[in-house]
Every structure is written in C-alpha cells, then in structure tokens.
Amino acid sequence: MHEIQLLSDKLDLLLKRYGALHAENKRLKDTVAQQTKSIESLNLKLQEVEQNMVAVQIGKSVLTDDEKTKMRKQIDTVIGEIDKILTNLND
Most Cβ neighbours (<10 Å): which of 10, 58, 72, 82? Predict the structure, then answer.
C-alpha cells in the first residue's frame, strides 16, 4: 500500500511539473511570436530608410554633413533595435 501512495505522489509531482512546463512553453512561444513581429516591423522600417536614402542620393548628388549625420543616426537606431531583438531571441 505504501508503494501505491509513493507512486501516486510521484505522479502528482510529474503532473504539476508538466503543467508548469506547458505554461512556460506557451509563454515562450508568445514571446517569440511577438519578437518576430517586431523584427518584421523593424525590417520594414529599415527598408523605408534605405529607400529614402536612395531617393535622397538620387535627388541630390551631394549631401550636407548634417544630412549625413542625421541619416547615420537613423540607420544606427534601426540597427540597434534589430540587435536588441536578436539578443532577446537568443536568450
């Protein structure tokens, strides 16, 4: 009879662990889905910035230093956001 109780206790523990792992798995999947959407959004922003950059270069053959600095800051910001998301995905 003691053995049956021991098995029952182990089964209860395993069921609790399964429930906790199942909940964590769902949470992680939701996080990955959210970060994937963020990456897609940032990729679209990057494409827009690249298109704007090409349009500016076509419209003007020579950019001023202020315009170059502003464009670099925009690109650095987008790349930084993408790096943060990729870091979070790897965690």
Answer: 82
- Distance, in Å, from the CA atom of 52 to the CA atom of 69, rounded to the nearest integer, reads 15
Rg (CA), the chain: 25
Distance CA 63, CA 31 (A): 41
For the stretch 1-43, pLDDT in tens is 888 999 999 999 999 999 999 999 999 999 999 999 999 999 9
Does the pTM exceed 0.70? no
Q: Round to whole Å and give the CA distance between 58 and 71.
A: 15
* 13-19 contact pairs (CB < 8 A, 24+): none
Q: How far apart are CA 80 and CA 76, in angstroms?
A: 6
